[in-house]
Write a structure and sequence with these properties.
By secondary structure, this protein is of the alpha+beta class. It has a domain at 42-99. The chain contains one helix and seven strands. The chain has one helix spanning 60-77, and strands at residues 3-5, 8-10, 31-32, 35-36, 50-54, 84-89, 92-97. The strands form three sheets. It has a three-stranded antiparallel beta sheet with strand order 5-7-6, covered by helices on one side. Strands 1-2 form a two-stranded antiparallel ribbon. Strands 3-4 form a two-stranded antiparallel sheet. It is flat. The mean pLDDT is 80.
Length: 99
Amino acid sequence: MLKKVNDSFDARTEPMVYKIEKNVPMPTWYRNSTGYKGQFPFELMKKNDSFFIPCASVLQDKIGSKVHQASANYRRIWNEDFKGAYRSVTGGIRFWRTS
């Protein structure tokens, strides 16, 4: 941490000390050995099913891009036959499975 001394800064800093821990399991955020574990329920969807993501209108483009990319990743890794589309609707985003 820099300390102000007479209108100049002291560049001497304390080295950061890290605690090394053993046997801490790594979290699985996307998938594990049992299958898809993503944020969206793609694996539960049948053709013409949809789900709604509530969000502010200023976030609809960002959330839409996120769900589109997640569906593309799901298709690439888990299910080649999966196709979907999203649309901005009043109050958020709706995603439909189309195949």
